[in-house]
Amino acid sequence: MPKKHLPDPEKYELGEPYTHLGIPFPRLPATFEKNSVPLKEDYKMRSMDYLDTPEAYSLFEKQADLIIENGWKGIIDVGCRHGPVVDILMDKGYTDFNYMGFDTSAQPIEYAQETWQEFDNIEYRVMSWNEFAPAGASKGHKQLGQNNKKETDEEWWSRAGVKFKVDFHVDVMIWSGVLLYEPTYHLWFFHNMHNAYGAQNAIIQEPLKDQRAECWREDLELNTIEHRLHMYKTKYYEYESWEFDLDIFSGRRIISRVKLWQDGDSKWEDWVDTHGQLAANPHTEILPSGYKVIPYIFRGKLNFELSQRDQTLCQVALEKMFKERHSHRLADNYSRDKLHLGKMYMYNFVFDGDEPVFCSGVQNVTDKVVRVFSRYFAFEKYKTDGTTLLEKNDNFEELQYAMHWIRDRIIFWSRDKSPKFFERLKVKNELFSEWTVHPTKINIIYPNNEQYIFYTPKVPAEWWKNGNYDGFFK
């Protein structure tokens, strides 16, 4: 069992927290250039240790309780310091979670890394949310990016994407006293980072404007976005808050729970392909049928987030396909050079235990269109006799799994024979009730390749209007 370590307090210059008139305070400079509280981006552990006192405990306990009550498993903590919420979750016996906290200050991160060094589900990084903004990005007259030169999506990914990416699905992001660092454009960072992580929920903690005299200094001006929180209440799906009055510096605080979108809201979940790009790639799942689906290819590349065992299972299945393909009427399509895995948005293998049942691709056709059941191959042991075309071994569960990962695309299924198959399927299976059968053959992908298509849009409703979409499929 992994164990928590207790770092040497002398190494981190820890001692009794500083107090002012008996109230835990940060160690502030005697004078400032301005009368606002200085917002340092690199501070020592002891600088903010007033937040580690018993008087401040309930501030972080509320955050932990929200996580536990909602069963959130994937957590991003922005401006985390040493991540006190992790200690509380562990103390309360809530251990089944994945956590990544980041902060601009190196010493608190080092302290946290030493504390939780044996736990694979807990990670800390030194970085700034300013690095998230694309180079050259701006809003109004504010420069959000790192410099004035704009960067491509690929350049952004190699610079920032790989730094912020995590290998788990993100349920909630914690913004504890950090949004005030960007008093004007906090909402831009909040909104875009939630989209990139696919995080539906947020916990915000901010100081209130009015403070008790003993918990403040008259010569200071408070940094807070309390007066801006109404923007979060009106913009997003759910908002509730709790106020605290603690015997610590700026002890009057507010904690807000934000649910950004309603479950299944296509405006978030189905809209842009960048939604959730910083969270985990698709992972192996057990389908309701009991079969196992392994997403071998994702976005045209091998999915290296799979276990070595699952990668090996898929590689062995590929070799089996190459041997069995010769009895297939389209045998050439399943050769090594014509399988075209690099063109696949996804390519999934479905297994019965360790036995491959079938494999199926989601092929990129254009930047707005994908074809499902591309290079579909059923292995000999699980082939049907062709009398039950409207049914599949997995009841189309692999398709539903794949569609969860497809965003901002028109999805179609094609075949060169009669469209009556699609028409019957639309009536028989509720999954396809909203799909459309194109009345005539259209040419797709290659010259002289006319097919009947069965399609559905996974784009915002306002974008999808009545019209002729034949051109999208070419």
What does this structure look like?
The protein is an alpha+beta fold and 474 residues long. It has two domains: 249 residues, Vaccinia Virus protein VP39 (Rossmann fold), CATH 3.40.50.150; 189 residues, Aminopeptidase, CATH 3.40.630. The protein is 21% helix and 24% strand. The strands form four sheets. Strands 12, 13, 14, 15, 16, 17, 18, 19, 20 and 21 form a ten-stranded mixed sheet that branches.
CATH architecture of the largest domain: 3-Layer(aba) Sandwich
Terminal CA distance reads 56 Å
What is the percentage of strand-forming residues? 15-25%
Strand count: 21
- At the first level of CATH, the class of the largest domain is Alpha Beta
Q: How many whole angstroms does the radius of gyration measure?
A: 27 Å
Residue-averaged pLDDT, rounded?
89
What portion of residues is helical? 10-25%
The CATH superfamily of the largest domain is Vaccinia Virus protein VP39
* CATH topology (fold) name of the largest domain: Rossmann fold
Number of helices: 10
| Structural class designation | alpha+beta
Catalogue the unreliable spans: none
| Domain module tally | 2
Largest sheet: 10 strands, mixed
Task: Identify the overall geometry.
Answer: elongated
